Backbone:
């Protein structure tokens, strides 16, 4: 298992063996394909591929989805405890909480967290402009003292009220549906990032045939919808969406309206310019 795209890439590049499939974000699957780490599974020729929404075929390197199967997508917003945070609508609401004695956290992910700063300053989350990145760096440094931690492990803390609100994934909706009076998730009005995960077969996979059979199994709508019900995010399987229960079809976080989707930005492979983001992230994480 792995916690981030970068951790997964490092594990594969270090020679880890025995793995057949990986679930990278779409920008990371582009990187992995360029590095020659993926097997061309000819996904777009497999039984069931007609169920995949072309709108989710967004790879820059493989726009026809030959190598990888578009799998799941969703927004990255704010998961919060209503008893501690009240109702939140914006990133400004989120960052105002520490001034009220409440704790907040952000993801320990350079693209996601710098992405919030870029959005708040009117920039693309894929910008390579040095001035834009300096502006994002300054914006984060101004708020560093307000952030209790950079972490992924927040679910139990938000549920308990130890953390009032956390920068987190739309999968939090699985908890808000269980406790709608206590817990909430919001895609901030200013905009947010979104992710899409693809399923890819590794070039050195020992069980390529079995992996491809798994693709065909998963592309059945009745199977894809079970995964969506468990993960509570969007699915790239168009017929599976029709099988969702009404509470998920109508949920503005898992099925956001067009005007919200228009404000969501997805990461792209930055190539060597990722070093600029690494420098910003190092300064933010090490600032006292």
Residues:
């Amino acid at each position: 298992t792995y916690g981030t795209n970068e951790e997964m890439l490092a594990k594969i590049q270090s020679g880890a063996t025995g793995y057949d499939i990986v679930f990278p974000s779409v920008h990371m699957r582009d990187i992995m394909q360029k590095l020659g780490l993926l097997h061309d599974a000819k996904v777009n020729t497999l039984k069931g591929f007609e169920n995949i929404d072309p709108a989710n075929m967004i790879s820059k390197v493989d726009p026809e989805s030959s190598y990888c199967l578009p799998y799941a997508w969703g927004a990255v917003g704010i998961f919060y405890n209503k008893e501690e945070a009240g109702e939140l609508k914006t990133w400004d609401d989120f960052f105002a909480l520490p001034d009220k004695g409440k704790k907040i956290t952000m993801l320990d992910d350079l693209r996601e967290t710098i992405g919030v700063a870029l959005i708040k300053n009117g920039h693309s989350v894929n910008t390579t402009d040095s001035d834009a990145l300096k502006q994002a760096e300054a914006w984060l440094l101004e708020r560093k003292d307000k952030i209790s931690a950079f972490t992924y492990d927040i679910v139990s803390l938000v549920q308990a009220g130890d953390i009032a609100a956390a920068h987190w994934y739309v999968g939090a909706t699985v908890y808000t549906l269980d406790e709608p009076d206590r817990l909430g998730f919001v895609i901030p009005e200013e905009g947010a990032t979104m992710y899409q995960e693809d399923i890819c077969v590794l070039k050195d996979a020992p069980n390529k045939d079995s992996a491809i059979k798994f693709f065909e199994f998963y592309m059945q709508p009745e199977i894809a919808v079970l995964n969506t019900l468990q993960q509570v995010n969007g699915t790239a399987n168009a017929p599976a969406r029709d099988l969702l229960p009404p509470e998920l079809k109508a949920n503005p976080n898992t099925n956001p309206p067009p005007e919200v989707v228009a404000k969501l930005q997805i990461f792209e492979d930055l190539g060597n310019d990722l070093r600029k983001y690494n420098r910003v992230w190092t300064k933010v994480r090490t600032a006292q």
User: Anything to note?
Assistant: The domain at 5-73+195-256 is CATH 3.40.190.10 (D-Maltodextrin-Binding Protein; domain 2). The mean pLDDT is 96.
